[in-house]
Amino acid sequence: MTQRIYPYLLYHSCEDALEFLSRAFGFEEVLRYTGDQGYVTHAETKLGDAHVFMGNPGDGYRNPEEQGGETVGLYVYVDDVDAHYERARDAGVEFREHPTDQEYGERRYSARDPEGHLWFFASQTKQVPPEEWGATVA
Question: Which among 15, 18, 14 is positioned nearest to 46, based on CA atoms?
Answer without folding.
Answer: 18
